[in-house]
User: Fold this.
Amino acid sequence: MNIARTPPSGDELASMYTDAGWINAPNPEIMTRSVESGSEWFVARDEYGSALGIGRVITDYARYAFIVDVIVLAKHRSAGIGTAIMNEIISECRSLGIDSVNLWPSIGKVPFYEKLGFYALPPEQPHMKLKRAI
Assistant:
C-alpha cells in the first residue's frame, strides 16, 4: 500500500461515501466537483492502484487545517490504513507549521483520533453547522 497525494476519481469518492454509509446515491457531478476542489487529498492505494481509503484536508496553508472525509473501505478496515492516512496528513500539517488542525469525528471514532493525538474541545467550544435553507 502507498499513500498518493493525487485526488481520487469522482467514482472512487462516490464509492467511499456509499461504503461508509454517508450518502446512498451520490451525484457524480457533485463528487467530481469535490475531487477537483482545492483540497489536499491523501489516497491509500494497493499495488494494483485500487483505492483502499482516503483523507482530505481543507487548509489555508498558514494557520488552519480541517481534516474531512477520512474513509477506509469496510473490507480493509483494521489493517492500519486509516492510521497511515492520518499520519501522512498530520506530518504534512506539521511540516507546514499549521497551528490549528481540526476534525469532526464520526460517531464512535473519537478513540481512534485520540490515539493520534487529537482531543475533544470543551462543550462551550463546539463545532457548529449552518442550518439548511428552507
The chain has a mean pLDDT of 93. The helical segments are 10-20, 28-35, 81-96, 110-115. The two ends are 45 Å apart (CA to CA). Residues 81-96 form the longest helix (16 residues).
